[in-house]
Amino acid sequence: MDQTEELRKECARLQAELEAKTIEATAQREKSAQEILRFINILSHDLRSPLSVSSNFIGLILAKYGLNMEPKMKEYLGYSADGLRTMERLLSDIVYYARIGTSQKPLVETDCNKVLESAATALRGEIEASGATVAVQGGEGSLPVVMGDVALLTQLFRNLLANALKYADRPPEIQISSAARNGQWLFGFKDNGLGIAPEDRERIFEPLERAHREVADKGGKGTGLGLAICKKIVERHGGRIWVESALGEGSTFYFTLPKA
Known about the structure:
There is one protein chain. This protein is of the alpha+beta class and 260 residues long. Helix content is 55%, strand content 16%. Helix 2 runs parallel beside helix 7. The longest helix has 63 residues.
């Protein structure tokens, strides 16, 4: 056997060994991800029970003694109830965030006009209360069909709409655009909100980060996972998400999705 044949066989052996190790490593990662998700689900379930009990007792106290209660005491109990509700939302968002990466659902042709309609319907109360306007560039029904997971894309649109509603000091104006770019669809969600400082434009997509902590401190209801969930959903679809903004001049969140 000449050296060339020996080298060919050795390369084939190394290739087979590498493939086997890759398969083993992938299986191990999937197993670890499932174990982490299982732990998060158990932890969330166990924490929800005492939170629910505490919320119920605060509700009972306010219902029974609220009329005769000192205003300050009533106010403090209200703060406590708000804090418990925020904790419950945070637990839900943590579980949702963990599940996105384990989703194996195939991407299918998805009409983004219907996705936007579902997302806006879920936020109808907030949209009407704030006096917000939501407009699509090109008119109603002009958004494209993409390859996507309907549930995840609905959550993506909903989070971006909610973000625009939350960080506005005037009636929100939200403009949604789409355009074909390099074999993908490029979407833009433009708002007239507070804007984001340059140093915060990447940080806000990390879990539990906020661009405007002062809003949260004054009663903002966000959990700090909304944009992190958006990033994970977009990446699940093979795209990317970023923001262009200036303080006091609003923001435009851009993301890409695969064409159908």
